[in-house]
Amino acid sequence: VGSGSAVSLSRQVQGTGGSSAVSKCSAAARGYIQDRFLRLLAGRRRRRAPLIHRGYYIRARAIDHCVQDFLLKTQSLPRTQILSLGAGFDSLYFRLKDMGLLHHTVVYEVDFPNVTCQKATLIKRMKELSALVRDTGGEGLGAITLSGEDYRLLGVDLSELSELERTLEEAGLNNEIPTLFIAEVVLTYMENTRSDALIQWAAEHFPQACFLVYEQVHPEDPFGRVMQQHFSQLNSALRSLAQYPDCEAQRKRFLGKGWTECSVMDMNEFFTCCVPEDEQQRVQTLEPFDEYEEWHLKCSHYFVLAASKGMEPSWTPLLPSVTVPRHAGPVGMAGSVPAAVCARLSGIPGLRRYGHRSVLIKPNVILTTGGFGEENGQHCRMRNFHVLSKHAGYWKAVCVTQNIPDKRWGERLYHTVSCLSDTLALVVGGRTSPLSAGLRMLWLKFPETCNASDPDDIAVELVSLQPAAEAAALRWRHSTTEMTFKGEQYLFVYGGRSALEPVLGDWYFLHTPELSYTAIAVEGLVPENRHSHSACSWEGGVLIAGGLGAAEQPLGSVFLLRELEHGFQWQTIETHPPLVPRYSHTAHVHEGKLLLVGGVWFHASSSPGITVIDLMTGLCLDYVINAEHLEWPLMLHNHSSVFLPNEKELLIIGGGGNCFSFGTHLNPEPVTLSLSSILTSL
């Protein structure tokens, strides 16, 4: 798909089109897209992951939404035309024809000559396709590869504008009738001067026209850097991103090139505002799914743009059908927090993981368990534990093998670990796959004598529990928090999700150490169901912040479960300015301040850094993380963090995930964030 002057470059770009067709075909096979023609055009079949299916679903949905809106707005006109630039093996024409939507519309498809020759051969060979095209025998005339009653397939390099214009004229394109231009991940592969010239040429030569674009955005945040690196390694660099890095820059680009109206939204906004709620729910239940962070990050790095000129009535396909409260304007940053690689902890593969948990088991001794990461050069669910210890100012890490090779650990992700004594920690929940019913509770026992100066002696023993408290455990992405009630110690298990329920809002009080269920009265407005939130102990109660709600929307609420004489009460903590909704963050409390670390939000102009909430006044301040001294992108989701109050430092361990089709990124080394300047100034 797309264009480039060199033959080798054009081949690489064309390869992205073939891969795209296979992914769309896989999404159609799983019911995301209704398209019986993809399998005929894709050539080879390969089943993709659910994350890829969702990504290609939203792409297809955005294009179809805008194309059908154009056809609906122009249905009373005698003639219209669609010009698909860099169409590759797309099935758009066949779907529209099959649906009876091309009564007075001719579709022109343009791509490299060798791509259109392959496509023409496929069409002629497949009766299902050739019957719709009804070949009129016009091929062989210059660059016209195939010609039908309402279909023209043209082999020409898009970057050669004069050649493109001549070919379109030969094929019968009419400048005087309403025309829809489609560029689906195409313009970004062209040199900016050439893609700009194409956008301006379309505006100048077509008095009534619309231009539809779908492509990448936000190159400089961690996900964007991984995305750029992926395409550069394919020798198909994303050339438009440096000059047009965000949605507003793209909007100004079109308005500055002769288009009179232009609207643009990223794919999180499109999915939320332009896809009906019942359709959202249908897609969300097609397959077991648990990669919310990567789905939302992918959607924040792609946009759909609709520009028009001379259209009566105006073409406005991106008007939201529902109004969703969104955080207005850029997030104001109160300052920055420096990030530094943790000395002497580099090069330890077992610390490259996500969906794990890290807990301080003794002063300066941290136990990291579970998750998905890298072991022996392979990506896998992590069985081994790691102990990090700080001695004489330096951190050291050792791998701890479980004493008994059993299956009780279950290679779990998204569990919780609560340290209850010098020798005992409790593991609650977690999963292996999104299909799993959840994993049983376990005690982790470690010797009383272990200390920071000699972590090599630390051994961890797994002890199974009786199934009395299993209802609380059959979940993941939940929280387990230490609390007190009438002087007794409890664990508060809250929220999460399970194999049966995509989001939970229930809770359990587990009396320690015997872990018996205890019924304690709770009053007040109950928080909405959530998972991937944060929970911290504070003044005997529990602080719940953020999370992902029932509609897969980030939440911006903060609740305190406060102890009363006869039980507990939910109280809302109002923040000002309002907390930007987020999830997959970590949290800590220090001297009446709630610290939220990283996470995922829909506000794509920046990545979440550190947010400090004053629990007395509600003042909410955001700080950007300055990672300029790191040689790799720092992804702060699915990470773990440990707050070291004496140093006023955060130790970040792991983090990252599957970056759509761009590969898996795991933060390669632990990182320290120095909070002394911001905590001192507050």
UniProtKB/TrEMBL annotation:
Recorded superkingdom: Eukaryota
Record GO terms (molecular function): tRNA methyltransferase activity
InterPro entries for the chain: Kelch-typ_b-propeller, Ppm1/Ppm2/Tcmp, SAM-dependent_MTases_sf
SUPFAM superfamilies to which the protein is assigned, alphabetical: Kelch motif (SSF117281), S-adenosyl-L-methionine-dependent methyltransferases (SSF53335)
Record's function text: Probable S-adenosyl-L-methionine-dependent methyltransferase that acts as a component of the wybutosine biosynthesis pathway. Wybutosine is a hyper modified guanosine with a tricyclic base found at the 3'-position adjacent to the anticodon of eukaryotic phenylalanine tRNA. May methylate the carboxyl group of leucine residues to form alpha-leucine ester residues.
Family membership: Belongs to the methyltransferase superfamily. LCMT family.
PANTHER family the UniProt entry points to: TRNA WYBUTOSINE-SYNTHESIZING PROTEIN 4
Protein name: tRNA wybutosine-synthesizing protein 4
Organism: Falcunculus frontatus (Eastern shriketit)
Organism ancestry: Eukaryota, Metazoa, Chordata, Craniata, Vertebrata
Gene giving rise to this polypeptide: Lcmt2
